[in-house]
Design goal:
The protein is mainly alpha-helical. Helices cover 74% and strands 1% of the residues. α12 packs parallel to α14. About 8% of the residues have low confidence.
Length: 460
């Protein structure tokens, strides 16, 4: 009876039900067993594209599309109140898989990458939907649910693809059908998501407006000051203006509040630059593995891509979870930890760029991912501490946009066929390695300078 009562109490938690509901979609959208072998699929039967065509012509398209759509999609997500954009996310995934399975020409793969870029841009709706449905006090736990559900889907994808290929139950081409099945179920599940009546900016309800968060918001006629500084009779006017007629004023106020805080700015800079490099490494790692195996034909362990992805996801999730409980004053030690970890990421990528042993490349990939997710956990947490509680989606979107903007520039410089330096895969990885090394050195030097300055100031 006690157990049944406990279950009933949990089920009465509306926020928890919503978290499970949207988390289930997150699991389904990440169930993509084809992903660990997508490069092999594109470069072998039945597609037979050359490696250069894949990384110079096909893959960059998604980056350009994501960049062009991200800010528009963020605004549409809030305006359309989330659910339609989540449905579009799933639909984009379906279109992508349909093109991968039944179409073979390069220009058709460009269209496939368009849908992949659309899917990437629409990803923000998944992570922000829950913020419009639950109270602010549950933000931290539901955010962990969202990321946990996605990681669980990725983990099962890696395990499934490895089992299917190891025991010859399926071929790499067949894995596309499992991926299509997962995203199709996700599409049907998205249709059942509860609609959102209010949103953070365009459709603010009375309960969403927090007077303590309101500083200055510019309108077409005057400035509105914080509600607790106004007379009581002015509060309804402020509430009305904040919730309906001051969308872009509030966007600007939240933007300014976050990025004029130098501490938030520092972590956001690392977040954007590191995510840019991470995205590039994740995009082209399978091409590097193919090159490693090509240079060492006796080593055919490239078939363990799925297992590597599963181990990477599991260890990254576990490490990030554990690191979340580490008690550290990040204002004092944050820069040095960022610097050292980022420098190590660069060393791991450099190792990958020179090795001809696929196991070494796998290990470097796993360790690189673990370090990134640990620091992203800390970065997300530190940024969230010092911004308004309902502006996390905006800051997340802006940081992601900057990351993709940098990724686009990096792609245009070293990857695209029309780039300034059209480099092969290993040469690209050398660039990525020094990119992280430079970022690590900058933060390490900044930490040293800060330490010296504090010591001198204390002495004086």
């Amino acid at each position: 009876m006690v157990f049944c009562g406990w279950i009933v109490n949990i089920w009465n938690m509306e926020w928890l039900k919503l978290s499970i509901w949207i988390g289930t979609y997150g699991f389904l959208k990440e169930f993509r067993p084809e992903d660990p072998y997508i490069t092999q699929y594109l470069t072998h039967d039945p597609m037979n594209f050359k490696d250069e065509e894949v990384y110079q012509d096909i893959f960059p398209v998604a980056t350009y599309v994501s960049l062009s759509l991200l800010i528009v999609v963020f605004l549409l997500t809030d305006w359309l109140r989330y659910k339609p954009v989540i449905i579009m996310h799933a639909f984009s995934g379906i279109m992508m898989q349909v093109l991968l399975i039944w179409f073979r020409k390069k220009w058709q793969m460009y269209i496939m990458e368009f849908w992949y870029g659309m899917m990437t841009a629409c990803e923000i709706a998944y992570y922000t939907y829950i913020y419009a449905k639950v109270d602010k006090k549950h933000y931290q736990i539901v955010t962990s649910h969202m990321r946990g559900a996605s990681l669980a889907g990725r983990f099962l994808s890696g395990v499934t693809s490895q089992i299917m290929l190891h025991w010859n139950i399926m071929t790499i081409s067949d894995l596309n059908y499992l991926t299509l099945g997962g995203i199709s179920f996700g599409f049907l599940w998205a249709l059942t998501l509860p609609p959102v009546k209010s949103s953070i900016y365009f459709h603010r309800s009375n309960s969403v407006v927090d007077f303590n968060d309101c500083t200055k918001a510019e309108t077409g006629h005057a400035e509105i000051t914080c509600a607790n500084e106004l007379e009581q009779e002015q509060a309804p006017v402020l509430k009305k203006m904040c919730s309906k007629s001051n969308v872009f004023g509030r966007l600007w106020a939240d933007f300014k509040h976050a990025y004029t805080n130098l501490y938030v700015l520092k972590w956001s800079i690392w977040w954007a630059i590191a995510t840019c490099g991470y995205n590039q490494v994740m995009t082209y790692n399978q091409l590097l593995w193919e090159d490693v195996v090509h240079n060492n034909p006796k080593d055919n362990t490239t078939q363990y891509n799925g297992l590597t992805e599963a181990v990477y996801t599991l260890f990254s999730a576990f490490a990030a979870f554990c690191f979340g409980y580490v008690k550290v004053d990040w204002k004092i030690y944050g820069e040095i930890v960022l610097g050292v970890c980022t420098f190590l990421e660069g060393v791991l990528i450099l190792w990958s760029s020179h090795t001809n042993i696929i196991l070494h490349a796998y290990i470097a990939y796993i360790l690189f991912g673990i370090l990134y997710h640990i620091m992203m956990t800390v970065s997300n947490s530190e940024v969230a501490k010092y911004i308004r509680s309902d502006s996390y989606a905006l800051i997340f979107g802006i940081n992601t946009f900057v990351a993709i903007l940098l990724q686009t520039i990096l792609t245009m410089v070293v990857t695209d066929k029309n780039s300034l330096f059209t480099l092969n895969t290993r040469q690209q990885y050398v660039v990525f390695a020094y990119y992280f090394v430079a970022l690590g050195v900058i933060f390490t030097v900044k930490a040293a300078v800060t330490k010296i300055w504090r010591s001198l100031h204390y002495t004086l």
